[in-house]
TrEMBL record:
InterPro entries: BH2638-like_sf, UPF0223
Name of this chain's protein: Uncharacterized protein
Gene3D superfamilies linked: BH2638-like
Originating species: Convivina praedatoris
Pfam families in the record: UPF0223
Amino acid sequence: MNNYQLPIDGNWNTADIIAVSTLVDDVLMAYEEGIDCQKLLADYQAFCQVMPAKSEQKTFDRDLAQQTGYSIYQTIKQAQQATRKQLRL
């Protein structure tokens, strides 16, 4: 995995930062190695608790996609439609 810079909100606490970075790691893992769909979707729910506004999520996703080429939205969409336990994109 390459280095990337997460846009951290100054109001986030340690748990929030961990939730966001865990989802980012999950997305990268889905593309590079594969990940359990249930874990990915659970971590996405935690991410949504930190960033409940869809506009904020879209901005974050766009920034991540520019840095990594991977989309949170597309990854979650694939996980929700998956018929297998593991997701590999």
